[in-house]
Write a structure and sequence with these properties.
This protein is mainly alpha-helical. It has one domain. About 65% of the residues lie in helices and about 5% in strands. The chain has ten helices and two strands. The protein has a two-stranded antiparallel ribbon with strand order 1-2. Strand 1 and strand 2 form a beta hairpin. Helix 3 crosses helix 8 and helix 5 packs across helix 10. The chain is elongated, with a radius of gyration of 18 Å. The termini are far apart. The model has no long low-confidence stretch (mean pLDDT about 90).
């Protein structure tokens, strides 16, 4: 067998740079400024990039909103800043995700990582801004919990993938972020 035949038979398809088939703006949004273009573990890289960006976002929330950024319901924190960020990142890129999938003739490719960004922000919607700023390792815990739910897709998350087009791409990560966020609640009380 020649190299091409071996690659076709045994080679795991890597990120084939399909993102190049769409326009640059769409590619930058759906790959979260290129983090999804990583040839290995693009979903992990996108999630990690979102967790890194979350710290300056928490600083911004604290400076703009102070303690008005969150409220508590039965000792459960609802961080309005990250909740709003998750909702915006969920809804705004839907047309661009659809365009990218159409341009590249593919469904839910690994290089589309804006859904992971939504999931990370949603997992932080249950953590007070002050806890993120005082204990940045909370971001790593949110990252790990979200990746657990994103990869394994337990508790019905996999059903959300069946939604049509970009809705399926985005919805499963939003639910994974909710689950990760709910597990972040007791962690907040441990710090």
């Amino acid at each position: 067998m020649n190299r091409e035949e071996l690659k076709e038979k045994y080679g795991k398809q890597r990120v084939p740079h399909q993102w190049r088939k769409t326009d640059m703006f769409t590619a930058l949004v759906v790959t979260f400024l290129g983090s999804g273009m990583s040839p290995k573990a693009p979903g992990t890289m996108g999630s990690l990039a979102a967790a890194v960006v979350a710290y300056p976002m928490a600083m911004l929330a604290a400076s703009l909103l102070g303690s008005n950024a969150e409220f508590f319901v039965n000792r459960i924190c609802i961080n309005l800043f990250f909740l709003a960020a998750a909702v915006v990142v969920f809804l705004a890129p839907i047309p661009l995700v659809n365009k990218a999938m159409k341009d590249c003739s593919t469904e839910d490719p690994g290089w589309i990582v804006i859904d992971e960004v939504c999931g990370i922000f949603m997992s932080l919607a249950f953590v007070p801004t002050s806890a993120i700023l005082a204990h940045p390792w909370v971001l790593l815990v949110a990252f790990a919990l979200f990746r657990f739910f994103d990869i394994l897709k337990p508790l019905g998350i996999h059903r959300f993938e069946k939604f049509p087009e970009a809705w399926g791409v985005m919805a499963d990560d939003l639910l994974g972020g909710i689950y990760a966020g709910l597990l972040m609640i007791p962690i907040y009380y441990l710090v």
